[in-house]
Amino acid sequence: MRLRSIGTVLYPLGRLGPRLLLAFMLLAFMLLGFARQTLAQAVVADLSDHLIAVTTGFDGAELLLFGAIEGDAADVIVVVRGPPEEIVVRRKDRIGGIWINNQKLVFGSVPAFYRLASTQPLETIASDRILARHGIGVEHIRMINPTAENGEVSIFREALIRNKARLGLYPTANEKVTLLGNRLFRSDIFFPSNVPTGTYDVTVYLFRDGKVISAQTTPLAVSKIGMGARVFAFAHRHSILYGIAAIAMALFAGWFAGAVAKRS
Amino acid sequence: MQIYLPIAELSVNIFLFLGMGAGVGFLSGLFGVGGGFLMTPLLIFAGIPPAVAVATEANQIVASSVSGALAHWRRGNVDIKMGVVLLIGGFIGSTLGVWVFGLLRGLGQIDLVIRLSYVVFLGIIGALMLVESLRAISRQRKPGGKRRKLHQHNWLHGLPFKMRFRRSKLYISALLPLGIGVVVGILAAIMGVGGGFIMVPAMIYLLGMPTAMVVGTSLFQIIFVTANVTFLQAWQNQTVDIFLALLLLTGGVIGAQFGTRAGAKLPGEQLRSMLALIVLGVCARLAYELLARPDDTFSIGTMLGHG
């Protein structure tokens, strides 16, 4: 729901010294005021639902993202980013005739899920440099790279993205954002049944002349709900009790099956 | 119809897994085996993370061995004393096994160790069973073959801590069943099996137990060892999926009923050679996956999640 001005998008605050920071904040304040006047509400968007409930019968979900843009013709890119997680990428090597996990690299803050939709192919909307700056596009997904030889890291990074795509968690192709009369846009976002749980960010970027002129982020929660959620929570919070329950269930089932078999 | 498995964290088709339970249940009823050594690889083939497959299958075996053990108990075919000694070994082995399991999972080698163990054990057992049953079939055709001695005396009988097992009419070192228990416990934890396929031959050939006692006693031991594995896996690794276990159980119970009936109508030795071929088939499939170049030599996993 937050409106980001050009200033805050282009200049991250963290890298500046205190004195520069003060000057910058003054400038940003002015810019922000300016941006409000001209770009206010340049894009508004919302989701058909802000919660995906992973229930026992869950088999994937489809959400509708819709919104409107203000002003001249522009391009819209929608990026869905899942919660960050730590991912180990392992490479198998042939050792003694069999394939064994050998080398591994750990990537931090990897979005568990990533999905992309745009009105046009990305390369026609903006330059690679701009897209990289905003983390738009599979090859620009932000994550914390491990320390290793440069070539190695990029091979492992590609493998990570390839494996995530195979699981259906990263895109294999760009999805479509449909523009209606240069004002309204809509896009269907599909979440597969193995969608990771957590808090997602759905960001709508508005591009004009190869630059981001507005962006809006909407949160989305994916959580386990109902019986399955209770089982999962129970298994993790009270794992001793869960183990005993599992055994009790099996003992009863075994006894019951035996009793039925004897009677018939 | 889909069901979301909360621990495996994926959505599966109910009927596929009920069917798998029924299929393996049928075979276990038919051949009188536990079926864990078939079910765990099947679950892995079906896309269940190996760690979850192993732990959940241990849970299912608790159920299937209870009904088997009860039936044998009623006929007086359980040597409790022997069972308890095996059990002590089994507790030690399975506790060790679950610990090693967690360790290997952290190292990212658990899949490999599970698969390797299967290839080795299924290969050996399958080959032995096949040879044995083929021999038995040819012996049947040529009547008057030599009978083997019940058991030979060797160095195993010189071990200390001798114990009398009245039910089995044995006077042997307690270290023997204890050792067998430890080995089977480790296998139960790592492979998600009851271990009957190792324990039964070991009890017959190493201990020289009467065949009538062997199955009931091994089932008695398997209940407690797999219960221990279930408990430890649930406690330490959180990999027991109750929903999955229920699906497999339900299918298994139904399948086993049909299997037992079908088994009564088929000749024993042909059955054994058939089982041997199935075992070797599963073994070959797993071996192929280890030896052939994988589609992608890279794999990913979360730091704490399923390896």
Report on the structure:
The complex is a heterodimer of chains A (264) and B (307). Chain A has helices at 6-10, 18-39, 122-125, 128-134, 150-166, 227-237, 239-263, and strands spanning 2-3, 43-47, 51-54, 61-69, 75-81, 84-95, 98-111, 114-118, 175-176, 178-180, 184-191, 198-208, 211-224. Chain A has 264 residues and is α+β, with helices and mostly antiparallel strands. Chain A has three domains: 1-40; 41-223, Macroglobulin (MG2) domain (Immunoglobulin-like, Sandwich), CATH 2.60.40; 226-264. In chain A, the strands form three sheets. In chain A, strands 1, 3, 5, 8, 9, 12 and 13 form a seven-stranded mixed sheet that branches. A four-stranded antiparallel sheet of chain A has the order 2-4-11-10, with no helix packed on it. In chain A, a hairpin with a 2-residue loop joins strand 6 (84-95) and strand 7. Chain A is globular, with a radius of gyration of 24 Å. Chain B has 307 residues and is mainly α. Chain B has one domain (2-142, 153-291). In chain B, 71% of the residues lie in helices and 7% in strands. Chain B has ten helices and five strands, in the order E-E-H-H-H-H-H-E-E-H-H-H-H-H-E. Chain B has helices at 14-31, 36-45, 50-74, 80-107, 110-141, 175-191, 196-207, 211-237, 242-265, 268-291; strands at residues 2-5, 10-13, 162-165, 170-173, 298-302. In chain B, the strands form two sheets. Chain B has a two-stranded antiparallel ribbon. Chain B has a two-stranded antiparallel sheet with strand order 3-4. In chain B, strand 1 and strand 2 (10-13) form a beta hairpin. In chain B, helix 3 packs across helix 9 (242-265) and helix 4 runs parallel beside helix 6 (175-191). Chain B is globular. At the A-B interface, strand 6, strand 7, helix 5, helix 6 and helix 7 of A face strand 1, helix 3, helix 5, helix 8 and helix 9 of B.
